[in-house]
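Hello,

Our lab assistant flagged a job as stuck in the queue for most of the afternoon. It eventually completed. Since we weren't sure the result was trustworthy after the delay, we are filing this so someone can double-check. Below is the sequence as submitted and the structure that was eventually returned. Let us know if re-running is recommended.
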Amino acid sequence: MPDALQQLLQWSTSNSGNSSATAAAPKEDAAPALSTSGSTAAAPVQPKKFDTAILDHIMGKSEAVIMREKLAIAVDEDQDLSERIMAMDDFEMATGELVESIDNATDMQNMGLWPKVLDLLNDKQDPIIKLACWICGTAIQNNPKAQEAFHSHKPMSKLYSIISSIHPTDSNIQISNSTRAKAVYSLSAALKHWPAAVADLSSDADRGWATLRDGLSDPDVTVRRKIAFLLSTLLLQSDDYTDAGVIIENPVTSTSPNKTVQKMAETKVLDALIRSLVKPLPMGPDGDISEPDWDLQEKCTRALVSALERGGLDAEQRKVLQDLWKGWKMDKEWDEVGYTEAEAQEALKLL
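-- returned structure --
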């Protein structure tokens, strides 16, 4: 394609001449002028139609147009995998720019894009599933309007399936660890600051809570860390909503367990957090690293202290955590889990 600016200049020059010719042309109801040879004068030249693709090239397409075009490539299974991946990368970037403004948060819903994006979670290619999780997380994180649109399509069960796909399933698709970690990212974006988070996790016989509980013993440490951090976040935000999901204007921490803490106890999530501290899984690709994963330990500790502050640990759980806490004091490992000595002493008083 010739240079776009050159095309625009040529079109402008050509049609500025046509405009003069048109202005000088006789009116329709006037008699045609005769030339010296007796023939009628030539009709004015009509302006050439402008190719709007030139402006697209110069000005750039809108995010909405880019998203439609890229998604059309992404969902086309006849396209090469590399082309689909590139299209989804571009779509994710456009999505990120689009939802930076809260006013644009519902555009994916208004354009009818959510069903197509969510269908990609069922794709036959692991890289496509991973990118679909990434797009979902980018579109909805910290965005209540986008979260609402996302949840209206009932996508949670599919995210649970991807995260727990290390277990035998009927699917012949091999889901990678990195894809499962990206599904946790999407799940986290769907639940953070979402009033109905507890209800979503509790549906279908507490399937969501079971996924989080089992994820704490996942073979992949990245999945374990992400889930521990999500649990800590859910506990912290539980002060902001009533059990029915209604926002509390002036939240006050209570020693009486709220719905979030109760569900974590009922579904053995709290037990799984304690087990992650007391009996941590081996580290390294071959499981030959004995050094604790202090990043995971810190996230689990934060979650358990948050549960403790909300009256969520029974006597046995308190005793186990107390013994572990005292051992950290002796070995001067409190700082390894991100606590100053003063903070650790305060937590120990609660135990």
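-- support follow-up --
The delay was a queue issue, not a problem with the job. The result is valid. The radius of gyration is 30 Å. Residues 195-317 form one domain.
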